Amino acid sequence: MTRIKVWFAAALLLLPVFALAVQADPTSPQEIVRGVSKDVLEIINANTQDPARQQTLADARLVPLADFGRMTALAVGKYWRSATPEQQQALTTEFRAMLVRTWVAVLSNHKGAQVDVKGARPGDSADEQTVHSVVNQPGQQAIALDLDFENTAAGWKVYDISVEGISFINSHRNQFGSVIQKDGVDGLIRQLAASNAKAAGRSPAK
């Protein structure tokens, strides 16, 4: 399994196997992830013969979970500020499509994981919180998983994922930076768009 697949296999296997506290807060980061993951799994199971519908419904359900704008900005790094508003929007659109597409793919192939949520710890500010979990899969080594949340005006939002201490955002920043240095911001947009189009079985936009 590649590093990216390991990230998603860990981060997206937060299925409805958590033991709920008697008075669990439904708006807490832990319960938000549990609820959304459960819903997405149900979407996948109900639309196994229609991948396009899976993607559309999953996208609609997953959008509230993550701050895709912040995630994209962090992944693009120093190049984000020099990008035009149109480029920033295109980057966010393609990055979001990539995340949701991979989310659906991983959940489709990993339905039996056991997740032990160890709890949450404060982040760098009072508005940030990190949920720590351990993902156990039959026949595989347990994976340590952290999800970073920020409490925004719209509620708690995921802005980064770390597996075994390695940040998903930081890893993509290195990859994206290399592409931008070679082909510019538009080159990264084209690469992401082509990857998403190929996965969706359509021709990339010209």
TrEMBL record:
Alphabetical UniProt keywords: Signal
Signal in keyword set: yes
Cited Gene3D superfamilies: Tgt2/MlaC
Highest taxon listed in the record's lineage: Bacteria
Signal peptide start-end: 1-21
Transmembrane segments: none
One Pfam family of this chain: MlaC
Keyword Signal set for record: yes
PANTHER family linked to this entry: INTERMEMBRANE PHOSPHOLIPID TRANSPORT SYSTEM BINDING PROTEIN MLAC
Designated name of the protein: Toluene tolerance family protein
Originating species: Silvimonas amylolytica
